[in-house]
Design a protein that fits this description.
Layout: H1 2-8, H2 11-35, H3 37-45, E1 49-55, E2 58-66, H4 68-86, H5 94-116, E3 118-125, E4 129-145, E5 153-158, H6 159-163, E6 167-168, E7 176-183, E8 186-190, H7 196-201, E9 217-221, E10 235-242, E11 245-253, E12 260-264, E13 267-293, E14 300-311, E15 316-323, E16 328-330, E17 333-340, E18 346-353, H8 359-400, H9 406-410
Antiparallel strand pairs: 1-2, 3-4, 3-18, 4-5, 4-13, 6-7, 7-10, 8-9, 10-11, 12-13, 13-14, 14-15, 16-17, 17-18
Length: 411
């Protein structure tokens, strides 16, 4: 244990970890050219290990690097160990303690942000009401029980299970789903016997689906995109089995909103592949969207959304505006005015959930206060040392002056 503590508190370990951090930041930044910002952030900085990198068009599949979580956790352990083993509490070191505490809080806050925060979007047309936001990058397979009288029963399955191409079961589903085909990015087009041959030459294939829209479309597999302004649209062919009997195969895709359903045991289950949704206990309605431009140009001067917020649980019904640099903070979420669509009739709100959003501010304040306190302690000590010799010289000069005696006074 003593050897482990000595290793964790060593300055050499801190230097090595900082060097790994610099290398990781450099390679992760360069990798954004090939992988995109979102993918690179997730793979390099929100992971424990990174296996295989591409730098300046040079592929290195054999290279293994510690991920952001590994470097951050090791730095945290090293800092805490050094703090409690190498430093003793004195008022002259209070600034160092505050600085270390701020850095520790900053590391913990960043880790908490990566784990707990989510980003999604809410697209609203004028007059439209929604009680959910949608993920920018993730999809989900949903089965919706439409047989209930007052509400829908929704079973959501993450897209990653579709990519595994295996069997999917759920306690609330009365049937089993088998993934026969999965494409991470696709384009769909209508099928026709007269154009099937030309579509096949372009790379379109007929999906092995006999239900819903499957027999009516063809699928083109596309390369996975990484640009921030692009989205992958996945598709999959699902085979539904109940009681050992195959009910059929359906094509689901993030490109289509066509309603498809499975009938079983007198109940109707709709199925779809859609963006992952985050439901709220309140709803928002876009009453009006305003978009002002600079005269004679198409450059946006101001765009804002007038929203009606209704929360039955709190008996709340009010109107508000969301515009640039004036987000709405409500129920632990922050709604930003992110964009709009052509025609100025639809707005796009970015919805951010970050329980640790105040942590970086507190951490930076602690670091700033700690550095200031430590600087002032050294400054005061320096001033005192500078004043001490001058005081000593003045005292010595007074001691060497001749004393007045009674005899001298008489003279």
């Amino acid at each position: 244990m003593s050897r482990l503590i000595k290793f964790l508190s060593s300055l050499k370990l801190t230097v090595v970890l900082l060097a790994f951090g610099l290398v990781l930041i450099f390679i992760g930044t360069v990798a954004q050219v090939h992988e995109g910002l979102y993918t690179a952030q997730t793979r390099f900085f929100k992971s424990w290990f990174v296996i295989g990198v591409t730098v300046f068009n040079t592929k290195m599949p054999w290279l293994v690097l510690p991920g952001g979580y590994t470097v951050g956790s090791a730095l945290f352990a090293s800092l805490v160990t050094a703090h409690f083993t190498r430093f003793t509490w004195t008022w002259r070191k209070s600034g160092i303690f505050l600085t270390h505490l701020g850095i520790i809080l900053l590391l913990l806050g960043q880790f908490g942000t990566d784990i707990l925060s989510t980003e999604s979007g809410m697209r609203l047309e004028e007059g439209e009401t929604k009680n959910y936001s949608e993920d920018f990058h993730a999809y989900e397979l949903v089965f919706i029980n439409k047989s209930l009288a007052s509400e829908d029963e929704v079973v959501a399955i993450p897209e990653m299970l579709l990519a595994a191409k295996g069997g999917i079961t759920h306690p609330q589903l009365p049937f089993t789903v088998k993934v026969k085909e999965y494409w991470p990015n696709t384009d769909l087009t209508n099928y026709g016997p007269f154009i099937a041959e030309s579509l096949a030459k372009e790379g379109f294939v007929k999906p092995a689906a006999d239900q819903g829209i499957g027999p009516k479309v063809m699928v083109l597999s596309l390369p996975v995109v990484t640009a921030m302004d692009s989205r992958n649209i996945p598709s999959a062919v699902l085979e539904v089995t109940a009681g050992g009997a195959v009910k059929g195969s359906w094509l689901v895709s993030g490109q289509t909103t066509a309603q498809q359903s499975v009938e079983h045991d007198g109940k109707t289950w709709e199925l779809a592949l859609r963006s992952r949704r985050y439901y709220k206990p309140y709803s928002m309605t876009l009453l009006e969207f305003k978009h002002e431009r600079y005269p004679g140009t198409e450059i946006p001067k101001d765009f804002r959304s007038r929203i009606r917020l209704v929360n039955p649980g709190k008996n709340e019904d009010r109107e508000l505006e969301i515009f640039m640099n004036n987000p709405l903070r409500y129920a632990g979420l922050t709604f930003y005015q992110a964009g709009f669509e052509p025609g100025d009739k639809a707005t796009v709100l970015q919805v951010v959930k970050n329980p640790n959003w105040l942590t970086p501010y507190f951490a930076c304040v602690l670091v700033g206060v700690g550095l200031t306190v430590q600087f002032m302690i050294h400054l005061v000590g320096f001033i005192q040392k500078r004043m001490a010799p001058a005081t000593a010289r003045v005292s010595g000069a007074k001691a060497n002056q001749p004393r007045k005696t009674a005899e001298n006074t008489k003279k």
